[in-house]
Amino acid sequence: MEKTEMREQIERMTGVSVRKCMKCGKCSATCPNYDAMEFHPHQFVAMVDNGDIERLMESKSIYTCLSCMACVERCPRQVEPAKIIEAVKLLKIRQQGANHLTPEQVATMIDPELPAQALTSAFRKYRK
Fold first, then answer.
1. In this predicted model, what pLDDT tens digit does every residue of 88-97 receive, in sequence order?
2. Rounded to two decimals, what is the model's pTM?
3. Whole-angstrom distance, CA of residue 77 vs CA of residue 128
4. pLDDT digits (tens, 9 = 90+) for 56-74
5. What is the CA radius of gyration of the chain?
6. Where are the alpha helices (DSSP H) in the chain?
């Protein structure tokens, strides 16, 4: 997949334009897991904008993001970096071919302690 195609796919998945980022860094300054991440929220946005998505897909930062949405709350331009990080993670999962589950497979994975919201979210993510 071409770099431009990947960026456009991420923008379609998130509904966010990475070009709106004014690189103020407020998202990264708010990130509670900043020290554990190789790439920080503002860098994710800039790298997607520059087409450096393959490098992000190989980074452990996509798994160290806490999905707390603190960066989303602080962004003055509604760029929503957490959504972009999640989209890059999903792109990697799709590239590996591990994102397709049937309802029958989901039923075998249900943990009684798992909140229904997590199950619904996972089903939406892996069904496409």
1. 988 888 887 7
2. 0.74
3. 29
4. 999 988 888 988 999 999 9
5. 15
6. 3-14, 26-30, 41-50, 53-57, 61-64, 70-74, 81-96, 103-109, 116-127
